[in-house]
Amino acid sequence: MYQPPEKLKKGWAIHQKAYNDLLEYVIKTRPIPENGHTETSNGTMPPILPQSPINQFSPSIQEGFTPKLLISVGYVFAPFRDTSLTADAHLPQIQQHVFEPRVNSSTGDYLSADTIPLIALTKNAPNYISLVIEWTANKFPIGGHTYESSYAFQADYNLDADDNDVVDAEMSDAPPPPGIHTQIDKVFYTYKNSYFIKDVNQQPVAETELITRIPSGLIVLDKNGKIIDETNREGLIWFLQGPIFANRPSNYISGKSSPNREEPIVPIQPDNYIYPGAELDT
Q1: Which helix (H) or strand (E) holds 29?
Q2: How many CA atoms lie within 13 A of 131 on its CB side?
Q3: Contacts of 146 (CB under 8 A, 6+ apart)
Q4: What is the CB neighbour count within 10 angstroms for residue 173?
Q5: Are 191 and 76 in contact (CB under 8 A)?
Q6: Residue 280: helix, strand or coil by DSSP?
Q7: 25 and 107 part of one domain
Q8: What does residue 162 show for φ and ψ, rounded to 5 degrees?
Q9: Are residues 63 and 148 in the same domain?
Q10: Number of domains in the chain
Q11: Nearest 5°: CA angle at 214, between 218 and 241?
Q12: Cα(95)–Cα(137) distance, rounded to whole angstroms?
């Protein structure tokens, strides 16, 4: 930065006044700009700093008497199927699409709503934030042989009956062809909905076949609604920093119903669940 000279204190009065007036003008208007500054009709303007990009799903906490959580706009990439196009579900028809989560419930406002949706936080307690993803199960038989109006894999056999080899019979005119057939259905999952919710219990709700819960963050507030130990940010632990790529693995189940168990098997809730940052939950 340029430093202007000092004012004259000696010399002819007319010269001293003219010099000091010019110096005062220079100090006020700075016609010689600093590095990056620009001279305009409104004076010297500082450089425009580039805006820092906001990461998707970044949290902002409104502390105070009624603390609230604001989550910046973000998106979930997930497989999608338009059920209005066809009654059947074929895996090759599934495409990857981008979706925007809601807030507070499956029917809540989207993150980009004109009225910013907020999640109310509980004071003097931990707040566990989760992203819930709901799925639609699509079942379609796989295989190459007609079997009871469905499809199945045909398996060759070579059995021994009364010391005589049993071989595959000749193909009959009516399906299914003789032999051993294994009917298999593939269950694959497509996106239905997603939304952020808050829990005050460390143990998350048990997942089901059609619901996935992604832990998103832990916010611990004191009795005044402020983040505890804000200097070290121990009261704000956040896991999301960008888009979510969601996919639920497919299941293969027997096409035959069985009284022994329900398929697909329901996920088992773990006995002990240690949430990251759970040491703050006292």
Answers
A1: helix 13-29
A2: 24
A3: 152, 175, 176
A4: 5
A5: yes
A6: helix
A7: no
A8: 55, 45
A9: yes
A10: 2
A11: 70
A12: 15
How far is it, in rounded angstroms, from Cα 251 to Cα 78? 17
> In this structure, what DSSP letter does residue 3 have?
-
Does residue 133 belong to any structural domain of this protein?
yes
How many other C-beta atoms can be found within 10 angstroms of the C-beta atom of residue 197?
19
* 165, two tokens: 């080899």
What distances in angstroms separate CA 141 from CA 79, 151, 249, one per listed residue?
Answer: 19, 6, 17
Burial class (CB in 10 A: 0-12, 13-18, 19+), 224: exposed
Place of tokens 């079997």: 147
Q: Tell me the two tokens of residue 50.
A: 């580039």
> Are 121 and 247 members of one domain?
yes
Q: List alpha helices for 194-250, DSSP H.
A: none
* Domain of residue 31, residue span: 13-45
Query: What is the sign, positive or negative, of the torsion defined by CA atoms of 59, 61, 62, 68?
Result: positive
Cis ω for the linkage preceding 267 (within 30 of 0)? no
> Among candidates 126, 138, 46, which has minimal Cα distance to 94?
138
Q: For position 25, what pLDDT does the model report?
A: 75
SS3 helix, strand, coil % of the chain, rounded to 5? 10, 35, 55
Q: Are 209 and 268 in contact (CB under 8 A)?
A: no
Would you say 146 and 175 are in contact if contact means Cβ atoms under 8 Å apart?
A: yes
Tens-level pLDDT at each residue, the chain (282 residues): 456 666 767 776 777 788 778 778 777 766 655 566 776 667 667 777 777 778 899 999 998 889 999 999 999 999 887 766 655 555 555 778 899 999 999 999 999 999 999 999 999 888 999 999 999 888 777 766 555 556 666 666 655 566 665 555 555 455 555 556 677 778 888 899 999 999 887 777 777 889 999 989 999 998 998 888 755 557 888 998 889 999 988 888 776 655 566 666 777 776 666 665 555 444
Q: Are residues 123 and 158 in the same domain?
A: yes
